[in-house]
């Protein structure tokens, strides 16, 4: 009976870290969703303000269903804000809206890591789904070329996660800087926004670590299988 030590040693701790990060961001968002901004600014208004201050007029703002489903779509130039963010006036709503607007600003300024991340999307999508499958088939069918191709494809997905980190951190940095310079929020409110964005950043760090752990696991399993075949 096969016992996957690599999963227990490498992947399981990363899974637990990811779960902790998800819980932390949810708790932090819920906490600051209950604290309203003094100016009564909504997430939509915060996004509009940041876009205007950066002279960006070709990005539209739309509401989208779900919670924490906020995102910026560079292909259609649309900023989509979830229900707890779009019309709400909480510190959490403003923070999330400002962060996503940071991505629109990055897009307008052709921010390098964002351009690279967009270019990696097709390879990352294929690699995350097909990579592990090809590795497993290659191992059990003893086709080393197939195993190597699977690892390379999955490595592209892992690279996507690590390129995402500076993109997300920079978007939060931009959001905080503009909110501070514009005077939209006071110091206490900015502290709350920073906590929300820091908690969100942890989820991206955890995702990158989890992806790397899975890649290392696949490589070690493949090498172990190859050694066993050689010893036969």
Description:
There is one protein chain. The chain is mostly helical and 232 residues long. Helices cover 75% and strands 6% of the residues. Strands 1-3-2 form a three-stranded mixed β-sheet. A hairpin with a 4-residue loop joins β2 and β3. It starts with a helix and ends with a helix.
End-to-end separation = 19 Å
The total of helices stands at 7
General form = elongated
Based on DSSP secondary structure assignment, what is the total number of beta strands? 3
What structural class do the secondary elements suggest? mainly alpha
Radius of gyration: 21 Å
Reading side by side through the largest sheet, how are the strands ordered? 1-3-2
In terms of DSSP E residues, the strand content is 5-15%
- Calculate the mean pLDDT score and round it: 92
- H/E order of the elements? HHEEEHHHHH
Largest sheet: 3 strands, mixed
Helix content: over 70%
Low-confidence stretches: none
Structure at a glance:
The protein is mainly α. The protein is built from seven helices and three strands; from the N terminus they run ααβββααααα.
Features:
7 helices, 3 strands, 232 residues, 3-stranded mixed beta sheet
Tell me the layout of helices and strands.
Blueprint lengths: L4 H29 L9 H11 L6 E5 L6 E3 L4 E5 H4 L4 H18 L3 H29 L3 H39 L4 H45 L1
Parallel strand pairs: 1-3
Antiparallel strand pairs: 2-3
């Amino acid at each position: 009976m096969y016992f996957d030590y690599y999963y227990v040693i490498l992947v399981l701790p990363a899974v637990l870290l990811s779960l902790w990060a998800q819980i932390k961001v949810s708790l932090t968002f819920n906490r600051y969703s209950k604290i309203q901004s003094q100016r009564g600014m909504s997430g939509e208004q915060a996004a509009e303000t940041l876009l205007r201050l950066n002279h960006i007029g070709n990005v539209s703002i739309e509401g989208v269903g779900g919670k924490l489903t906020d995102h910026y779509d560079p292909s259609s130039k649309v900023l989509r804000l979830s229900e707890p963010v779009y019309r709400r006036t909480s510190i959490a709503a403003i923070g999330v809206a400002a962060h996503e607007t940071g991505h629109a600003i990055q897009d307008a300024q052709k921010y390098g890591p964002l351009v690279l991340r967009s270019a990696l999307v097709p390879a990352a999508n294929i690699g995350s789904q097909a990579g592990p499958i090809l590795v497993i088939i290659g191992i059990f069918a003893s086709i080393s070329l197939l195993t190597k191709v699977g690892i390379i494809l999955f490595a592209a997905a892992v690279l996507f996660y690590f390129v995402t980190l500076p993109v997300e951190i920079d978007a939060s940095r931009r959001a905080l800087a503009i909110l501070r310079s514009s005077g939209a929020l006071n110091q206490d409110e900015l502290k709350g926004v920073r906590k929300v964005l820091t908690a969100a950043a942890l989820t991206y760090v955890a995702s990158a670590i989890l992806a790397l752990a899975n890649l290392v696991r696949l490589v070690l399993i493949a090498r172990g299988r190859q050694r066993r075949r050689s010893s036969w």
